[in-house]
Design goal:
binds aspartic acid; binds adenosine-5'-diphosphate; Aspartokinase; Carbamate kinase; binds magnesium ion; single chain; Asp/Glu/Uridylate_kinase; 412 residues
Length: 412
């Protein structure tokens, strides 16, 4: 008998009918003899609705109170699912993060899980109950409700699987696995049978929201077998695996990720002297703004232009700080741009192949897409481009790296 943790995302519990369907599915698993712990998200759209309510009161709501509120979305779905199971004769009980005691740090709206008390859940499992746990939430040492960041129910699922030493963590969603790129943008995207943790981490951190990055980190760290599947269609899904197969067939690129949530800032004409990068980025990081890509160009007149990207939510804050720095340093000007996007190619196959980046640049050049910034690591190449060319770029790269599905074999 196996213990399986199953996480169902927002669209999979988006209506009462769907919740009933999920209950049917869980019931079938139970009849097959497995013990099941279910993690659910809020009904689709609910978390956004709640955040909007808060923003009507204040542009920047107090994080502690925001967490008290947004955590209610998941509390509704756990109770509804438990009711639907009990109605079907399946013993079930629901718990909030606080009730389980999913202990987190106190970083409201982006808390990290520190510890999970699995005892209560183990007792319920022994008593034959299906345990339904609220995703996305926990409690800090002082008893404050915390949340884990958008998409955080994935992390609840994986962390519970690790704590309970489950045999598998299954992430059920509205696509039937992890694709070579977002199947909603590229119809010819293909489902991957497997992807390595390392690649999935890159994909998640570079914008593929199919799994929250912390969920992948957790699964890698605690060796939790992790699979992404469609909630209501049969199929093998995608296994996230540790092993990197050394096969000739392995594609150089496994996937393409993209992110629209970035903004670019440039400070022009700063003196090209030691310590410039620190003078600029020190105050930015002191303002709690995370910097992603950085480029510095030296001009002929002993001045330099310094460009970096930040999350779009941090743009106004970063711009203000940068204007202050510019005045202090006597820089020529500060320029901001929010109409950018980042496109990345990811694959462990890059390690053993030269020329991957130039192939990427060639494909973009053929479409006349200008590259504004570039960054590389061992298994990825990212470029910043104008946002309006994003979809074109993703499609062109998908074709250039031979990821397109054969005709008639597409996602939807
Ligand atoms: P859930 O509510 O179930 O957590 P999400 O919306 O968070 O679902 O994640 C699933 C979505 O992720 C898909 O609908 C798809 O549009 C998007 N997505 C982005 N990149 C990929 C990818 N490489 N493979 C599959 N889905 C992807
Ligand atoms: N409901 C939360 C969100 O919308 C958490 C999740 O769905 O994973 O981000
Ligand atoms: Mg999600």
């Amino acid at each position: 008998m196996a213990l399986i943790v199953q996480k169902f995302g927002g669209t999979s519990v988006g209506t009462v009918e769907r919740i009933e369907q999920v209950a049917e599915k869980v019931k079938k698993f139970r009849e097959g003899g497995d013990d099941i712990v279910v993690v659910v998200s809020a009904m689709s759209g609910e978390t956004n609705r709640l955040i909007d309510l808060a923003k009507q009161i204040s542009e920047q709501p107090v994080p502690r109170e925001l967490d008290v509120m947004v955590s209610t979305g998941e509390q509704v779905t756990i109770a509804l699912l438990a009711m639907a199971l009990i109605k079907r004769g399946v013993p079930a009980v629901s718990y909030t993060g606080n009730q389980v005691r999913i202990l987190t740090d106190s970083a409201h709206t982006k808390a990290r899980i520190l510890q999970i008390d699995g005892q209560r859940i183990q007792r319920d499992i022994k008593a034959g109950r299906v345990v339904v746990v609220a995703g996305f939430q926990g409690v800090d040492e002082k008893g404050n409700i915390t949340t884990l960041g958008r998409g955080g129910s994935d992390t609840t699922g994986v962390a519970l699987a690790a704590a309970l030493k489950a045999d598998e963590c299954q992430i059920y969603t509205d696509v039937d696995g992890v694709y070579t790129t977002d199947p909603r943008v590229v119809a010819k995207a293909q489902r991957l049978d497997k992807i390595t943790f390392e690649e999935m981490l890159e994909m998640a951190s570079l914008g593929s929201k199919v799994l929250q990055i912390r969920a992948v980190e957790f699964a890698g760290k605690y060796s939790v077998p992790l699979r992404v599947l469609h909630s209501f269609q049969e199929g093998p899904g995608t296994l996230i695996t540790l092993d990197e197969e050394e096969s000739m067939e392995q594609p150089i690129i496994s996937g393409i990720a993209f992110n629209r949530d970035e903004a670019k800032l440039t400070i022009r004409g700063v003196p090209d002297t030691p310590g410039v990068a620190f003078k600029i980025l020190g105050p930015i990081s002191a303002a709690n703004v995370e910097v992603d890509m950085i480029v510095q160009n030296v001009a002929h007149d002993n001045t330099t232009d310094f460009t970096f990207t930040v999350h779009r939510n941090d743009y106004n804050n970063a711009l203000q700080v940068l204007q202050g720095i510019a005045a202090e340093m006597g820089a020529r000007e500060v320029i901001g741009d929010t109409d950018i996007a980042k496109v990345s190619i990811v694959g462990v196959g890059m390690r053993s192949h030269a020329g991957v980046a130039s192939r990427m640049f060639e494909a973009l050049a053929k479409e006349n897409i200008n590259i504004q910034m570039i960054s590389t690591s061992e298994i990825k190449v990212s470029v910043v481009i104008e946002e309006k060319y994003l979809e074109l770029a993703v499609r062109a790269l998908h074709t250039a790296f031979e990821l397109d599905a054969p005709a008639g074999n597409t996602a939807e």
